[in-house]
Amino acid sequence: MSCPQQDTLIQRAAVELESLRHVPKHDGVRFPRNCRRLLYEIPGNSNCVDCGSLNPDWASVTYGILLCVNCSGRHRSYGVSRVRSITMDAWSHNQVLALLEGGNQQMKRFFQRHQMNGETAHALDRQYRTKAALFYRTHLDHHVAKVADAGLYNGRETVRNGSSPPRT
What proportions of the chain, in percent to the nearest 5, are helix, strand and coil? Predict the structure, then answer.
């Protein structure tokens, strides 16, 4: 259940997200402040998804996860992961939405259900090159498109609880 303070943060983040819809995709803007606050409240996002380092400030848009600078370099080498800096890069509406709808804990649990724990660098490299990883990133991309088409963002719980967000 969400509290009034959380609802207000979601509303402010939704306004920021809406303003990104009108920015040309190739231009982008800095990661919006309230969206960033919301991003770091997502379970698992206070640590790098791969190594556990505190306060990750890089992201894989492809997987909707947060990474430390070292792990972000490894993700770039995979050739399928769009890696961006939360603080330095420009962001589009759907890229921000991918991070708000993804999450480190969500992806870790997905891989655990597929018996992949990525406990070593080699295991992580293999993990991100599996059919399961392809499935995850494909479905996250489709999910983000669906949420974007639904209109004003109402938070992760709206979609996860099966309620339809109001159209704008």
Answer: 50, 10, 40
Structure tokens at 149: 């088409």
The pLDDT of residue 124 is 87
Band (pLDDT 50/70/90 cuts) for residue 10 is very high
CA distances from residue 131 to 112, 116, 124, 126 in whole angstroms, order as listed = 14, 12, 14, 10
SS3 state at 123: helix
Give the C-alpha separation, 82 to 39, whole Å.
17
What's the whole-number average pLDDT of the chain? 89
What local confidence, expressed as pLDDT, does residue 167 receive? 42
Residue 20 to residue 140: CA distance in whole angstroms: 20
Is residue 152 pLDDT above 70, yes or no?
A: yes
> Exposed e or buried b for every residue in 73-94, given b needs 16+ CB within 10 A?
ebbeebeebebbebeeeebbbb
User: Reduced to 3 states, what is the DSSP secondary structure of residue 55?
Assistant: coil
Does the pTM exceed 0.85? yes
Which regions of the chain does DSSP assign to beta strands (E)? 58-60, 65-67, 83-85
Measured at the alpha carbon of residue 26, what is the angle toward residues 21 and 31, in degrees to the nearest 5? 60
pLDDT score, position 162: 64
